[in-house]
Design brief:
By secondary structure, this protein is α/β, with parallel strands linked by helices. The chain has helices at residues 3-11, 25-34, 49-59, 73-82, 94-102, 114-122, 138-146, 165-169, 185-189, 193-211, and strands at residues 13-17, 39-43, 64-68, 86-88, 107-108, 127-130, 153-156, 177-179.
Length: 212
Amino acid sequence: MNKIYEKLGQIGIIPVIKLERSEDILPLSEALLKGGISAAEITFRTDAAEGAIRLLKKENNGMIIGAGTVLTVENANRAADAGAEFVVAPGFNPRVVDHCIKNSILMAPGCSIPSEIEFALERGLEVVKFFPAEQSGGLDKIKAMGAAYGNIKFIPTGGISADNLATYASCNKILACGGTFMVKDSFINEKQWDKITELSAKAIEIIKKARA
């Protein structure tokens, strides 16, 4: 498996971050690191994403930097140029996926039905996003689909919380969970860095116990 994916698997949780101000990524990343989380997915839902990725890459503080909501080839190129080490999409767009493969951009496309997983396998992908996780059938659906498709791993995102994180993390089909509960918009906008550290540490503790 790709080394970035191996590292994400060891962490077990990927905060999914939406930023209105790119400069918030630096104190936010420090808050996550203090809580034991050394990965971040910065979504291209706002214009601040590309700048935030560049700032975090320049900071070089040990975070694994990802870009989320990568819907177009342009998004993928901008994310990679800014320094993203992996990109994620909510769905499976063959044009974007094929472009990423051709240009050695590590990508986890969204796959929530068997046909999409087969598209991913045909292209040699090892990891896919499962979104929206809870609304699409949750862990039961991942187990049912995963049983038919060998070693492929999932990053479930959507509806993941401190209450169900352990259930997901305990399954060997899960690489890592994507979550927003430790990086809510209100926490970031109100600069509640201590709260983010507290919830990050809680998430790491939940994952450790679930995998023990």
